[in-house]
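cron nightly-structures :: item 1 of 1
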Amino acid sequence: MPSGVKNKIYDHLLQNKGKEFTAEEIASAVGIEKVAVVKAQLTRLIREGKVEKTADGRYRAK
């Protein structure tokens, strides 16, 4: 499940390139109830260099 979730998150951010989202907004957009799962996957995407976290705690595709 988590890798599928990660792909959904990344796809959502890519489709909205240039826009920034909170983890809660991303979770709602991809249909994941647990924000903690989304945050964990966002951390992985950041480590992979695909996503960046902004100063105000939002996320966007690189």
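cron nightly-structures :: done
The two ends are 24 Å apart (CA to CA).
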